[in-house]
Amino acid sequence: MHVTFFVLLGSSMARFVQRHGGEAHAPWVIALAVVLAALYVAGLYVTGPGRAAPAIPQLPPGARVPRPSARRLVWLGAVVVVWAVLVVLAPSFAWVAVPLFYAALRTLPPLAAYVLVAVLTVFVISAQLTLARRFDLDLVVGPAAVATFATAIFMYMQRQAARQRALIDDLVRTRRELAATERREGTLAERQRLSMEIHDSLAQGLSSQRMLLQAAERTWDADPAKARGHVRTAASIAEHNLTEARRFVHDLAPADLAEGGLPEALRALAAREGDERLTVRVHIDDPTGAPLPDLVQSALLRIAQGALANVREHAGATTAALTLTTLDDQVVLDVADDGCGFDPVTLPDAPTGVRGHGIPAIRARVRQLGGTLTIESAPGEGAVLTAAIPLERPSLPLEQPQ
């Protein structure tokens, strides 16, 4: 629209100079045209360098329309007055009013803008009739139709822009709420997983120690040898609980990632979890060797920890395998065991039941990174848990459950 203004102003001036350049008022017309151009350029900087006045936003019914700034009103008044005087002296400048329609609509409240557009249209019609020197209905209907069409187009664009702004605001707000909800769900699931692990290991061990020490106290005088056996058993359980507590601390702060990345962290995890009852093997298939994002590495390590905890506590397996496969667009972690197996359909979404209290936490981590979780198992046939995480996403969550 700015380009249109200067094109119309330049063509009107060229027509005037060509036909009336020798008349006495020609210098005044040229000077006014230059002043009008300068005023229009100055208006581009009224609300900031290089920016036109902001469009009137779409407001709810009954809301007050914000008043335009005083500088903007002064600028619009000066432009309209100079243009009106210019049209009186040289009617060929009348069509410059079309860009001024949009300037009025962008500056004034709707009702005031409609009135000003009507006034400008009257000036255009008068100028056209002056040039024609006779009445012609086309010269009345044409400018009025152009003004009406331009106003309708502008208002339609304003409504569409307001609707788009509202949709974008709703989308941004919804995405923020969804991200916050996913973070909360992941945090709750992780807390539930940790509470279940603490209950199944540390709490049960402490309860056993208490019962053994109480039994030792009751039998100390009557059977000292039996009492000392109870004490030794309680000490053994305490040592095991201390090992479990250290494992929890280590799992909550995965320092293995800082030493050699996810492959080394998985190997260290396998070494810790493996013993005479369970053998854990690790296989890495990474042809590219490119480092994974920190969030993905941390999430996969936590998934492996949770899956192995389930294998140790519930599967009764003798062998487990961790397989990390890096593809072009995703990374896949498989955790397989040769345990008793189960029916995946019976797995709860919430941490209830005997088997699978860590699955909700794993599922929350995978979902948070936009991945997929697949569990394949059957009673008596072991189980395979597969977590696939995409490597290219528009944005990854800023947080992960802790």
TrEMBL record:
<comment type="function">
    <text>Member of the two-component regulatory system NreB/NreC involved in the control of dissimilatory nitrate/nitrite reduction in response to oxygen. NreB functions as a direct oxygen sensor histidine kinase which is autophosphorylated, in the absence of oxygen, probably at the conserved histidine residue, and transfers its phosphate group probably to a conserved aspartate residue of NreC. NreB/NreC activates the expression of the nitrate (narGHJI) and nitrite (nir) reductase operons, as well as the putative nitrate transporter gene narT.</text>
</comment>
<keyword id="KW-0963">Cytoplasm</keyword>
<dbReference type="InterPro" id="IPR004358">
    <property type="entry name" value="Sig_transdc_His_kin-like_C"/>
</dbReference>
<keyword id="KW-0004">4Fe-4S</keyword>
<feature type="domain" description="Histidine kinase">
    <location>
        <begin position="300"/>
        <end position="393"/>
    </location>
</feature>
<keyword id="KW-0812">Transmembrane</keyword>
<dbReference type="Pfam" id="PF07730">
    <property type="entry name" value="HisKA_3"/>
</dbReference>
<feature type="transmembrane region" description="Helical">
    <location>
        <begin position="73"/>
        <end position="105"/>
    </location>
</feature>
<dbReference type="InterPro" id="IPR017205">
    <property type="entry name" value="Sig_transdc_His_kinase_ChrS"/>
</dbReference>
<keyword id="KW-1133">Transmembrane helix</keyword>
<keyword id="KW-0408">Iron</keyword>
<dbReference type="InterPro" id="IPR005467">
    <property type="entry name" value="His_kinase_dom"/>
</dbReference>
<feature type="transmembrane region" description="Helical">
    <location>
        <begin position="24"/>
        <end position="46"/>
    </location>
</feature>
<dbReference type="InterPro" id="IPR003594">
    <property type="entry name" value="HATPase_dom"/>
</dbReference>
<dbReference type="InterPro" id="IPR011712">
    <property type="entry name" value="Sig_transdc_His_kin_sub3_dim/P"/>
</dbReference>
<keyword id="KW-0808">Transferase</keyword>
<keyword id="KW-0902">Two-component regulatory system</keyword>
<dbReference type="GO" id="GO:0016301">
    <property type="term" value="F:kinase activity"/>
</dbReference>
<keyword id="KW-0472">Membrane</keyword>
<dbReference type="InterPro" id="IPR036890">
    <property type="entry name" value="HATPase_C_sf"/>
</dbReference>
<protein>
    <recommendedName>
        <fullName>Oxygen sensor histidine kinase NreB</fullName>
        <ecNumber>2.7.13.3</ecNumber>
    </recommendedName>
</protein>
<keyword id="KW-0411">Iron-sulfur</keyword>
<keyword id="KW-0479">Metal-binding</keyword>
<keyword id="KW-0418">Kinase</keyword>
<feature type="transmembrane region" description="Helical">
    <location>
        <begin position="139"/>
        <end position="157"/>
    </location>
</feature>
<feature type="transmembrane region" description="Helical">
    <location>
        <begin position="111"/>
        <end position="132"/>
    </location>
</feature>
<dbReference type="Pfam" id="PF02518">
    <property type="entry name" value="HATPase_c"/>
</dbReference>
<dbReference type="InterPro" id="IPR050482">
    <property type="entry name" value="Sensor_HK_TwoCompSys"/>
</dbReference>
